[in-house]
Amino acid sequence: MGCIPSTEAEPDLENFRGLAAQTVFSINEVEALYDLYTKMSNSIVKDGFINKEEFQFALFRNNKKTNLFADRIFDLFDINHNGRIDFGEFVHSLSVFHPKTPEAVKMKYAFKLYDLRHTGYIEREELKEMVLALLNESDLVLSDDVIESIVDRTFTEADRNGDGRIDQEEWEEYVARNPSLLKNMTLPYLMDITLAFPSFILNSEN
User: Fold this and answer.
1) Beta strands of the chain (E only): which ranges?
2) What's the gap between Cα 118 and its chain centre?
3) 42 DSSP 8-state letter
4) 165-166 and 122-123 as β-strands: parallel, antiparallel, unpaired?
5) Diameter of the chain by CA atoms?
6) pTM to 2 decimal places
7) What is the SS3 assignment for 121?
8) What does the alpha-carbon distance between residue 178 and residue 171 come to, in Å, rounded to a whole number?
9) Phi, psi (5° rounding) for residue 190?
10) CB-based contact 121:171 (threshold 8 Å)
11) Among 117, 118, 115, 94, which residue's Cα sits nearest to residue 185?
12) What is the pLDDT of residues 78-91, one digit of tens each?
């Protein structure tokens, strides 16, 4: 094991142009994202990639407590599932959270977030686990009865065919009726990255 991890080659203007063409970001915004990516990827381990601890620390200011929501977001950013996020994955995934990204894209991404076991369905236990994780992230404490009633109500409304699980089509119909479910899928400061990120970028020096 003890080999030094290889670092990602620094992107050039052509890479920036390519990423801008494939996402909602401009070339200047991709450059600003590269500055953010560089800070994040070297905040704990200086290997040029973002590992899970760096990701959790940057987004949640906490790399110690286990959080299912943070884990799921990391897994979705880690498109090739190698345990680390490269710059291309970072830009493509952040693009989903841009205010200008169509809701249909956000719906599909949110479905993957809740489909913990990658079965193509959201099952009752998965929904309950994600509700608990989101409450935990918000520091909200609700009784188990209240959480059960939230899950029950969601399934009553979303599981149209009554098979005990929510498929992608049922999920999209449910979210269309309850758009607030996509609130976590939009990061408003992405509208002006070049201005917003200087204050957002890791305050780890403090």
Assistant:
1) 122-123, 165-166
2) 16
3) T
4) antiparallel
5) 54
6) 0.80
7) coil
8) 10
9) -70, -15
10) no
11) 94
12) 999 999 999 999 99
